[in-house]
Structures are given as structure tokens and as C-alpha cells.
Amino acid sequence: MAHHTVRKAYLELADRINRFPQGAPQTDLLLRILELLFSRREAELVAQLPVRPFTAARAAAVWKLSVVESRKVLDELASRAVLVDIESDEGTTYLLPPPMAGFFEFSWMRIREDLAAHRERARSARHRARAVSATTQPCTPQIF
Questions:
Q1: Which of 22, 94, 103, 109 has its CA 20 to 30 A from that of 128?
Q2: Long-range contacts, stretch 62-70, CB < 8 angstroms, 24+ apart
Q3: Class of residue 78 by CB neighbours under 10 A (exposed 0-12, middle 13-18, buried 19+)
Q4: What is the dihedral sign for C-alpha 35, 41, 7, 31?
């Protein structure tokens, strides 16, 4: 039964994202992606946010949290690029980016530290491969 409770947060978030004009139909793949991007608590909170841009005070009212607590959550989400934060003279406005090409990929570029390690290993392997190929005879492709 706990699995259904946990999954419910992501189902509600998927439903929230689907309210955008572009929509994002609820699929197992979408739910798995959301599980990677959001903790269960974050999914529960973000599912309650308005579709239009909002302030930390508005989020605080919706979430029934203090503005300070809400801003902390919003800033954490924005630091991982799953929320957009727009600074102006009036303060910070937040919004959940609409589902479109690059929506998830942009956030993964920001939060996937493990990918940075993979990129470094791949770069190092390419460097070693170039060094080896520079010291060996060129290979003539064979046609089978």
C-alpha cells in the first residue's frame, strides 16, 4: 500500500504538468522521469503549484508553509533547473517550465553530477585512444 502512496505524489505531479497547453500525457516513462527529478515531498509540493508564474508568498499560501520555508524549497528546485526563477526589482518569480523538447534534459545537465564523472572518463579514454593510434600504423579497413 505504501507504494501506491509514494506513486500518488508523482501521479499528481504528472497531472499538474499535463495542465499546460502542450500537455504531457501520463505514462510510466514520465513517472519514472519525475521520480528521478523530484523527491516524493517535492513532487507533492510542486503538484500544488499554479500553472502561471508565482511568488514564494503564493507558494507558501498554497503549501501552508512559511515564506522562508517555501523560498528554501523553491530555490533548491530552481538550483536543479526543475523550476525557473526570474529575478526582478519586485522580487523572485518562479514557474515550472512547460513540457517541451529539452524540458527534462536541461534539468539533468544541472543535477546529474554522476554524468560529469562519466564524461571525464570518456574524455580520458578518447585521449588514450588518440595517443595509442598516433603510435601505431594506420589500419586499412577490410571489406567483407
A1: 109
A2: none
A3: middle
A4: negative
Q: Which amino acid is at 36?
A: L
Identity of the residue numbered 84: V
Decide if pLDDT at 28 tops 80. Answer: yes
**pLDDT tens by residue, 94-139:** 998 877 766 666 565 655 555 555 556 556 655 565 665 555 555 5
Cβ of 67: how many Cβ atoms within 10 Å?
Answer: 14
Please give the model's pTM, rounded to 2 decimal places: 0.68
Q: How far apart are CA 59 and CA 64, in angstroms?
A: 8
Asked if pLDDT for residue 43 goes beyond 90, the answer is yes
Nearest-Å Rg of the Cα atoms of the chain is 21
How far separated are the first and last CA of the chain, in Å rounded? 58
CB neighbourhood size of 46 (10 A)? 24
123 CB-side CA count, 13 A? 6
Q: Nearest to residue 92, comparing CAs of 107, 109, 70, 108?
A: 70
